[in-house]
Amino acid sequence: MNNEETPSTSSNTGELLDGNHVEKANQSVEETSHSIETQSGFMYKRARMQGKHKSFYHRGLEDTDEMYSQISPYPFPMMMPTQNEEEEEDESLTEYELIPPYQMIAVRGVNGYHFDSSVLQVKGFAYFKDFPVESAEEISRSILVRKVLSTGEETEYKTVYEFEADAVESDDHAYEVTLDFGTMNDGHPLNSGQYELFIRLKQFIDERWIAQEFKIGKKESSTTDFSYSTKNQWYQPKTVSTYSFVAKQKLNSDAFVIYSTKLSEVDPASLIVDDEIVEEETKKIRANKRRFFRLVYKIFSKILPIKKNQVAFLSDARVDLTGNFEYIYDELKGRNSFLKPVFFLKKSINEPKTLREYVGLAKAIATSRYVLLDDFYPLIYPLEIRKGVDLIQVWHAVGAFKTFGFSRVGMQGGPKLSSKNHRNYSKAIVSSTKVIPNYAEGFGIDSKRILPLGAARTDMFFDETKKNTIKEQLFEEMPFLVGKKVILFAPTFRGNGQNTAYYPFNWLDYHKLYEQLAPQGFIFLFKIHPFVKNSPNIPYEYSDFFCDVSDYREVNDLLLLTDVMITDYSSVVFEYSLLRRKTIFFAPDLSDYMTTRNFYVDYLSFIPGPRVSDTVHLIEEIEDYTSVDQERLNAFLNYYFDDLDGHASKRFVDMLEDSIDEHVVDEEENEEYSEDGKWMPKWGENEGANSTINDYKNEEDNIK
After folding, report:
1. 3-state secondary structure of 395
2. What is the rounded average pLDDT of the residues 270-274?
3. Could you give the C-alpha distances from 467 to 119, 379, 455, in angstroms and in order?
4. pLDDT of amino acid 171
5. pLDDT (tens digit per residue) in 617-640
6. Both 665 and 584 in a single domain?
7. pLDDT reported for residue 26
8. From CA 573, how far away is CA 586, in angstroms rounded?
9. 646-to-67, 212, 508, 634 alpha-carbon distances in Å
10. Is residue 683 within 8 Å of residue 344, measured between CB atoms?
11. In the 3-class helix/strand/coil scheme, how is 186-224 assigned residue by residue?
């Protein structure tokens, strides 16, 4: 590895090459004869000359590293732990004799490499010439990731990771292995540095295990240098680190080199980008505005009467009328209700509000008979809701799956018991009596305040006319879906919350998914949780198969076109199950997720579909998408829905109207709509607050 060139920044994709390897015994003899004084041969001769040669153990010998430090400049520790250190192995499989190349000739090479983001797949071959393999149990191969410590006259290495390669059933000489440089370091990206790939070949010969270690080998049928580069991000609660990975192999070279470089480390809060945010607030300015908001709310609560027919819709998760709000409003409008809706909608919690908006919001909360929330709304939790006003949480999710709120006290990212979040709800709406205890615990409120009226947004699944209208609209917007079998990938986020949310897309093998499913007429849609900061890195050559539709706000609309859904721990499974189609649960990190987040029920007995943890089994379940366990699915639906009738919105509005005697009809309408046909009410529409805030127009500048 002397005179290595500067790492290439080429982004050419590594292609997987097919073809059978050819034994090149004469060439192998010539190559290995030059390496007697290097690698394992060098160590063997030095050890024998010093009288220290003996059989080496894969692990268990305390003096192995010490011996090597005495006999060789190559720090090849023979006690490297495998990925499953805790598993017990037969001593006969872990003991082996490391022999030099001149004693036995090893034939090895690489049929091809393939990269998906930071995940490398290697298909190769390695075997001892003239020693046939009688069974797969008699031969094994391990890929060693060795860090380059120095590149002088003799390159020094340190083995940092070892991965057992899988045998190929059809060829005793072949192997396959997958290496994920993005999670290799105990779930973190590979540390900065230069590395090379080696292979340890072991075979059971003459009643003992013998082994050789050497560089991974040349790439067969290659006509050019191989190079590939990508980036990977690692999310922590207070930092997001970006790494660059560059892999290269020169033509006719045995060395496969990886360069890992840490490019940046930033505060995740600085990564929040919103095109609609027109001002950037400091924490001090925002804190002052919120104190002003609470003061104005107290004043309005004391001097203004409650408007008995007013319903305020509050959300910091949407600017158009979607989800539960859409169906509640449609029910109010459809029955010409005397209840008067006013709207206060923002795209996200991080989008600033002006003083004018704070005043209008405070007035609405203080004077509306009903205040509706559909998600987490931290601005309202410190307030003492006045008598005669009901604060109702209609929640954006159905059922109760993963733990949330106060159910996560003591967990990483969970609230403190002293938190005021959620506790001031007058009522909360759920889909089933079975989940009332879960929501009472999560919201920290009495179970008597939780009403199983059903989720309004699920009414759509029982309205054939509306479903057909939505599907026609979607096909017009996304004509590439016409005639395709649609796969919807809709997982939840990883991380502790909005500022650190991410998804590890490297779990998916883009190449295998494309190669096996695209020819069958499938198309793969990504609908990623809105908190997630990173996006799927879709290779250009697969862009006719993968499509990111995460910007489409309403996931329920997309479900109507979906033939098979893939999720993990997301509550979207409740809505999709109403269509009685197959859901696949792709959960490679189930044990870790149970430790950090956990569930209200046993996961494996809860899910109404198969659970898989790798791409191979995922593909198998997708191909069998018409196979649905209807009995299990029906049991699931009956548990999480008290009423499967499409009248949740009606029950909710009935509840609102039954509490009021005064009937006032309001016929004002707003005709602004988003591109996908959703109504976009203005801030405080119909509420009349704007006429009361002239006195505060200039106060915002004073606060700043």
Report:
1. coil
2. 52
3. 40, 35, 17
4. 81
5. 999 999 999 999 999 999 999 999
6. no
7. 40
8. 12
9. 75, 68, 36, 16
10. yes
11. CCECCCCEEEEEEEEEEEEECCEEEEEEEECCCECCCCC
Task: Give the Cα separation of 50 and 591 in Å (integer).
Answer: 49
CATH number of the domain where residue 551 is located: 3.40.50.12580
Specify the pairing of strand 119-128 against strand 171-180. antiparallel
What is the C-alpha separation between 579 and 577, in angstroms, rounded?
5
User: Do 570 and 492 touch, CB atoms closer than 8 A?
Assistant: yes
Q: Which of 206, 224, 242 is the last residue of a domain?
A: 224
Question: What mean pLDDT is predicted for residues 317-322?
Answer: 87
CA 532 to CA 504: how far, in whole Å?
10
Tell whether 497 is covered by a domain. yes
Burial class (CB in 10 A: 0-12, 13-18, 19+), 295: exposed
CA distance 354 to 697: 10
Pick from 34, 38, 171, 163: which is nearest to 111 by CA?
171
d(CA 65, CA 600): 48
Look at the block and give the residue holding tokens 């209840």. Answer: 339
Tally Cβ neighbours within 10 Å of residue 350: 16
Lowest mean pLDDT segment, chosen from 101-105, 481-485, 634-638, 652-656: 101-105
Q: Is the dihedral of CA 545, 546, 552, 556 positive or negative?
A: positive
- The predicted-structure confidence for 293-307, as pLDDT tens digits, reads as follows 999 999 999 999 999
Query: What DSSP designation does 704 have?
Result: -
Please tell me the distance from the alpha carbon of residue 307 to that of residue 391, in angstroms, as a whole number. Answer: 14
> Which pLDDT score, from 0 to 100, does residue 268 have?
62
Do 118 and 232 meet the contact criterion of CB atoms below 8 Å apart?
yes
SS3 content of the chain, % helix, strand, coil (to 5): 30, 25, 45
The pLDDT value recorded for residue 59 is 32
563 contact partners, CB below 8 Å, separation of at least 6: 485, 486, 487, 581, 625
Q: Packing angle between helix 283-303 and helix 355-367, nearest 10 degrees?
A: 40
Share of the chain above pLDDT 90, in %: 50
Q: What distance in Å separates the CA atoms of residue 14 and residue 426, rounded to the nearest whole number? A: 58
Q: Give the H/E segment covering residue 146.
A: strand 139-151
Output the pTM of the full model: 0.69
CA triplet 523, 525, 527: central angle to 5 degrees? 170
**Which 3 state secondary structure label does DSSP give 260?**
strand
Query: In the structure encoding, which two tokens stand for residue 223, read together?
Result: 């006509």
Asked if residue 311 is part of any domain, the answer here is: yes
Residue 273, in any domain of the structure: no
H-assigned helices in 413-485: 436-443, 464-477
Phi-psi sector, 422: left (phi>0), alpha (psi -120 to 50), beta: left
**Domain carrying residue 45:** 25-224
